[in-house]
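QUALITY CONTROL LOG
STEP: pairwise intake check
CHECKER ROLE: data steward
CRITERIA: each record must contain a sequence immediately followed by its C-alpha cells, with no blank fields

ENTRY 1 OF 2
RESULT FIELD BELOW
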Amino acid sequence: MKTAFYNCTIYTGRQKLINQAILVDDDIVSDLVTESVIPASYTKQDLGGMNIAPSFIDLQIYGGNGKLFSHELSVESLQSTHEYCLGGGAYYFMITMATNTIENFLRGIKVVRAYWNMGGKGLLGLHLEGPYINPVKKGAHVASCIKKPTIDEVKMLLDKGTGVIKMMTLAPEMCDEAVIRCLLEKGILVSAGHSNATYMQASKAFKNGIPAATHLFNAMSAFQSREPGMVGAIYNDSKVVSRVVCDGVHVDF
C-alpha cells in the first residue's frame, strides 16, 4: 500500500521540514517530496499539523506490560514487550536478558526465533547483559551466575545464537582480548558495563573496538580526581556512545 503523510512538521534527525510529505510504500519510507507533487498513486493521509519523527529504538529493555522476559521465556512475553514499546514511541527493541544461566540464554534464543517465525514485529534481537561482568559492579545481577568467559563458551553461544544475539554488555577487564575480538568480528554490538575498569583499561578497550557503554554512571567505575575510571574514558573518547537511564533515580535530573 502506498501512503503519503502530509500537513505535518517532519523531523529527520538533521532537519526540520514543513510543507513536505513522506511517501511510504509497503511500510518503507521511499521519498520526501513537497506536498504539491504527491504522486496520484499514493493515498493521502492528513496529519493535521502534527509532528512526525523517526521512532525510537530501545536497545535495553527486559520486558513490558507486566511480563519480564527472563522470568517468562515465551512468545507472549515478547508480544507484550512490543506493545509496551509502541506505547512509548519505540517501534524497534532489543529484548535484554540480565546475567543468567547459559541454559536460560539458550532458551531465550529459541523463543526469539519462535517469535520471528510467527511473524512477530519490532524485535531486533537479543541483548545479553552479562554474565561476563565484574562482580564488584554487579548491581542487581545474580552473583552466582557471573563468570569469566572462555573463548569456547562464547563461540558456542554465538553459534547457537546466530542471527539472534545482536548485543552483549560485558566488563572489558574481565574478558581476554581474544573474546572481545571474537564478538566484534561476528558483528556483535559490544557494550562496556557493570565494570570496575580503570581509565587505562577502559580506554584501551574502546581503542580496540568497543563502541558503546551501558548506563552511564551506573555500575561502572566513577570519575574521581586520581582515577577518571570508565566514566572518564567514555567522556574522553568521541566515538563511544552511552545509554543513560534518565529516570531521576539512576541519574539525577
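ENTRY 2 OF 2
RESULT FIELD BELOW
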Amino acid sequence: MKTIELNIENNIASLTLNRPDVRNAFNDEMISEMTQAFSSLQEKGDVRCVFLKGAGKSFSAGGDLGWMKSMVDYTEEENIKDSEKLYEMYEALRAVPVPVVTLVHGHAMGGALGLIAASDIVLAVDETQFCFSEVRLGLAPAVISAFVKDKILPRDMSRYFLSAEVFGPEAAQQMGLIHEFGSEKAMQDQSEKILKKIINNGPVAVRETKKLISDLKTSSDIKSQTTKVIAKLRVGKEGQEGLKAFFEKRKPRWTEAP
C-alpha cells in the first residue's frame, strides 16, 4: 500500500497513516486503502487489537487540499458517491471487532476526527491541536457527525462544529473525544501498556464485549441482551478456562505466547 502501513505482530495490528509530507491528509487513494485495511482486519481472527497512529509531525490534517480541489467541479451525484466512500471508511474502522487504540499527535483536523471518534481508546500527545474545520471552507462536518455524535454531547458539537475553533487535548478530554493526554513518551508507553493489557484478556470475551457496547446503543431489550451474553460466555470454552485459571491461581492459557 502507498499511503498506509499495516503490520501484524504478536496479535497486534499496527496501522500507520503514511503521507507525512502532507500531514497524512486524506485523498481518494488513502481512503480506499484504509477502507481495505480496516475491512481486512474484520476477518483476521488472530488479531486481538489494533494500534492506529500517524507518521511524521501530525496524526492527520483531514482532507488533502489537492483531492478537495479536484472535487470542485463534481456534480452533486458525484459528490454523494465520494462522500459515501468516506463514510464507508469510518464504518469499516468502527466495525473492526477488536479494540482500536489510537495515538494522536500534532494536528487532528476535519476528517481525522472521524477516525478518532470511530476508535475505542484514544490517547493524545500534549500540544495536539484539534479542529472541526469544515465550516471554514463553507462545508459541514456531515459525514463524521454520524460517528462523533456517539462520543461527545450535542452542546459540544454545537460549539466546535459551528465555531471551527482550534482546541487542545484538555478540551478534547473533557468532551469525551480522547481518554488521556501527556508527553509523547508517556503516551507511547501508555499505548503499549493498554495494548498489552488487551491481549492478556480473553480474546473471545473482548470481541463479545466490544459487540455488546455497540449493541446496547440500539437494543430494545437490554435485559435479554445482557443476560444472554454472560450466559454464553460462562459456558464457553474460554470462559470455563478463565474461571478455572482464576480458582487455580494460574494464568489462563490464552496468555501463552503464540
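INTAKE CHECK: passed for both entries
DESCRIPTIVE NOTE, ENTRY 2: The chain has eleven helices and eight strands.
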